[in-house]
Amino acid sequence: MSLTPDLAARASHPHAITDPKRVPAQRYYSADFAQLEKEKLWQHVWQVACRLEDLPETGDYIEYEINDQSILVVRESDSRIKAYHNACRHRATALGNGAGTFHGRQIVCPYHGWRWDLNGENTYVYAAQRGFTPACLDKDNLRLREVQVDSWGGMVFVNMDAEAPPLEQYLEGIAKVLDPIAFERMRVRWWRHVILPCNWKMAQEAFLEAYHVMQAHPSLAMGAADDDYNVDSLASNFECFEGGHAHSRPPTSSEVPVKGMSWADYFIQFNNALYFGTDAFTTEREMFIQQGLLEKDIPDDEFPAKFFEALYTYAQGAGIPLPPPATETTGYGHIFPNLTFLPGYGNNIIYRSRPNGDDPESCIFEVWAVQIPGADAGEPERPVLEGPIPVEEWPQIFREDFQNVIGQQKGVHGSGIDDLIMSEHYEAMIINNHLTIDRYLSGD
Ligand code: FES
Ligand SMILES: [Fe+2]
User: What DSSP element (H or E) covers 365?
Assistant: First the structure.
């Protein structure tokens, strides 16, 4: 899609983008803007509520919160998930908190004991005949209020707008390029979160471009700078979709990103930096395979190819159903408005950023490290959210990113700062996200 539509003409709300290369600073701290997002974006957009593996058994539930909304996602049967506003139909008490199980397939309100089955139908009202008129007891009126729900790639999406088009349509384009990565085969290795003192978009944007790697992550750039480091190898050549989703295509050049380094040295150091700096993209599994290759005499420029060969051989032996290598996508992708994927080798790291209540300058930022398990992994445990983990306790690469966005949130308040300058080459995913937010806010 073009990143330069007729923006000025449809800028019908405050702080709208009129030039895609300039993002108004107020979008990151204005309470009015956050309120608009609350009403016109979050109430109408598909968003990831949880992972399918959060609900392994019938009756399992998890609560998803966005702004002041609480939604209960419930496994109704082996094949069906439901989502409800987390509010009793009597006097609106929340029916579940965090995660748990509705035993006996009954959702029971803790206040006066009204009950529902997992399908949302009311099954019991205490002292119904004595206490309530027949109109109050109308069956449809007593049903739990539903929220649209569907799943893709092992994740459960919800949408509070009953009129919103189906998820399949919403993900058109992006699902096709991300499907070969086989997200649905992946299971959670860990799931952690941090509360960051910055806008939800700002936190996310640190993971929507790689332009910052040269300065912010010297371990990934091997200390190289300027013309010695070609960051385009990590994320550029973006494909942006109308729905706000985007991904970066594989690099067009086969040059080593750091001038003067061999492919073997770059590849090994990059893996090491990711393993120690994130414990997500590169995991023990790949370090083990890499270690095995280091003991062999492999020509420098063949090292990456030999690594992938060894990975597939290992996967076959260990019963890890790795999909064939994805040729059309690096897996570095974004699902509008707040989910980002970074690729590994049969692994992925998934980020979700969302407002923390109604505060435009606080966000809940979560990281899932997921991986395709081997045949001997057994049934995975139901994932448990760790944290909030203080910034200083995260592995190095996350820390570097989090510290930058904290500093950025401070800077956007500067009275001389009207806008943030964007590169259409490196920051296209960010621009596309803002333009799509504006479409929601303008009611397009
Ligand atoms: S508020 Fe739920 S039963 Fe009364
Ligand atoms: Fe980063």
Answer: strand 359-371
- Listed residue (54, 137, 69, 15) closest to 370, CA to CA: 54
Question: What number does the ligand 1 atom closest to the CA of 93 have?
Answer: 1
Phi, psi of 291 (to 5 degrees): -60, -40
For residue 395, report the distance from its CA to the centre of ligand 2, in Å: 12
Distance of alpha carbon 382 from alpha carbon 365, whole angstroms: 20
Domain residue limits, the chain:
47-159, 171-441
- From 86, 89, 93, 142, mutation site for ligand 1 pocket: most ligand atoms within 8 A of C-beta: 93
Residue 224: count of CB within 10 angstroms of its CB = 18
CA of 26 relative to ligand 2 center, distance in Å: 23
> pLDDT tens, 125-177?
999 999 999 999 999 999 999 999 999 999 999 999 999 999 999 999 999 98
Where does ligand 1 bind, in terms of residues with CB under 6 Å? 88, 90-91, 93, 109, 111-114
Ligand 1 atom with minimal separation from the 92 CA: 1
**CATH architecture entry for 171-441:** Alpha-Beta Complex (3.90)
- CA-closest residue to ligand 1 atom 1: 91
Of the candidate CATH numbers 2.102.10.10, 3.40.50.300, 1.10.340.30, 2.40.70.10, the domain formed by 47-159 belongs to 2.102.10.10
Q: Which-ligand-closest: CA of 111?
A: 1
- Which pLDDT tens digit goes with each residue over 329-364? 666 899 999 999 988 889 999 999 999 999 999 999
